[in-house]
Amino acid sequence: MGKNNNERLEFLGDSILSLVISNYLFQKYTDLTEGELSRLRSQIVKGKTLAAVGRHYELGQMIKLGQGEIKSGGVNKSSVLADAVEAVFGAVLLDQGYNVAKNFIESVMQPWLQLINPTLIKKDPKSELQEILQQQGLQLPEYKTIEEIEINNEIRFKVLCLVNELKLSVESTGSSIKKAEQSAANKAIESLRPS
Question: pTM of this prediction?
Fold first, then answer.
């Protein structure tokens, strides 16, 4: 990585975004538990949502990328767009301070904040799978990282989700071990649902 990348701004932007959204949800949804607030926040600050924000504000055409990234369609990649949104939030915080950054983030995120429906809070797939198995008196699933793959300079993790008593083995990949485990758990839940 060259010196002119935005990773440090992304780090800062990720932190301020999480704080601003946490505070917004805490103030607005006074009857929700800590776990419910966490699940709502994770829906808003996740990469998929941030990529949608980047597309909505046409941020892709303003991103300066290296030749390799351009050839692989970098400006349209969800991960690139999500990182760019975080970097912008970090830059506003550095340049304008917390109060301006807070107001800016709440304004930018408003279309997605309007879509929040606390009655539809879903548990994350790992928690949901755990509850399903516990209700049936079964042991908790095991997760094993079986492979790390590098594709276009991005590391992908292949994970196995095992439910031994049901002889269920599901594999999935993700950009982090946590995401791969969640994806595998989601596939396991789908396979346990009656068809």
Answer: 0.62
CA-based nearest residue to 104, from 190, 22, 42, 21: 21
Active-site positions read: 14, 86
User: CA nearest 158: which of 136, 143, 140?
Assistant: 143
Q: Which residues of 60-75 are buried (b: 16+ CB within 10 A; e: fewer)?
A: beebebeeebeeeebb
User: 88-119: buried (b, 16+ CB within 10 Å) or exposed (e) per residue?
Assistant: bbbebbeeeeeeebbebbeebbeebbeebeee
Find all residues with CB under 8 Å of 12, minimum gap 6, and list them.
89, 90, 93, 94
Query: In what side-by-side order are the strands of the sheet with 168-174?
Result: 142-151, 154-163, 168-174
Q: Each residue of 126-167: pLDDT tens digit?
A: 988 988 898 889 999 999 999 998 877 788 999 999 999 999
CA dist 8 and 42 (Å) reads 21
Q: How far is CA 50 from CA 18, 43, 115, 171, in A?
A: 12, 10, 14, 26
CA-CA distances (angstroms) from residue 129 to 30, 144, 177, 184?
28, 16, 17, 10
Q: Alpha-carbon distance 174 to 166, whole Å?
A: 24
Q: Of 43, 41, 19, which Cα lies nearest the Cα of 32?
A: 41
Only one residue has tokens 């793959």, namely 149
Residue 26 structure tokens: 């805490």
Tell me the CA distances in angstroms from 65 to 6, 21, 61, 151, 155, one per residue in order. 11, 29, 10, 18, 19
